[in-house]
Amino acid sequence: MELKKLNQKNELELNSIISNFFHQPVDCQKSVKFLSDKRNIIYACAEDENVVAYVLGYQLPRIDNGNDMLYIHHVCVSAEYRRKGIAKKLLNMALEYAQKENLHYVYLITQTDNLPARRLYESCNGYNHPKNKELYYWYFSAKGLNND
């Protein structure tokens, strides 16, 4: 298995993520555009070109004079590859990127009852900020709470 940061040359791997994890048809133009934006960060674990796990993040600018931040949107591992340390390795790669780029901080959101995810994040020295307890959504597409 190969762990790597995806770039413009990894369209097949991104398409594997879209097919295998989202179960959606691939829009090749959208894939190319996504990979060409350096603010989109994807670390993936692949067997050949079949991605079995990935961490997706977005580097976000700040309005003040502080350095950018990294929002981790997905930490996903195929069921048969869970509990093998892959998610921790990929997440640590993203955290190392953030340190190397001198980002101000990294954050992610998870469900309170997702104990395996919370244990993973804590094992990577993440912590649950005491003031961030509520999360609100505004959906503007046909997808809603059941499809994100």
Automatic annotation (TrEMBL):
<dbReference type="Pfam" id="PF00583">
    <property type="entry name" value="Acetyltransf_1"/>
</dbReference>
<dbReference type="InterPro" id="IPR051556">
    <property type="entry name" value="N-term/lysine_N-AcTrnsfr"/>
</dbReference>
<keyword id="KW-0012">Acyltransferase</keyword>
<keyword id="KW-0808">Transferase</keyword>
<dbReference type="InterPro" id="IPR000182">
    <property type="entry name" value="GNAT_dom"/>
</dbReference>
<dbReference type="InterPro" id="IPR016181">
    <property type="entry name" value="Acyl_CoA_acyltransferase"/>
</dbReference>
<feature type="domain" description="N-acetyltransferase">
    <location>
        <begin position="1"/>
        <end position="146"/>
    </location>
</feature>
<dbReference type="GO" id="GO:0016747">
    <property type="term" value="F:acyltransferase activity, transferring groups other than amino-acyl groups"/>
</dbReference>
<protein>
    <submittedName>
        <fullName>GNAT family N-acetyltransferase</fullName>
    </submittedName>
</protein>
